[in-house]
Amino acid sequence: MSIKTATLNGVATIEIARPEKKNALTVAMYQAMADALNAAQADPAVRAVLITGQPGIFTSGNDIEDFMSRPPGSGSASAESPVFQFMRALVGIDKPVVAAVTGAAIGIGTTLLLHCDLVYVSDEARLAMPFVSLGLVPEFASSLVVPRLLGNVKAAEKLLLGDPFTPEEAVEARIANAVLPAGEVVNHARRVAERFNALPPGAVRETKKLLRRAGTDDVLKTIAIEGELFSARLRSPEAMEAFQAFFQKRKPDFSKFS
Question: Domain count of the chain?
Answer without folding.
Answer: 1
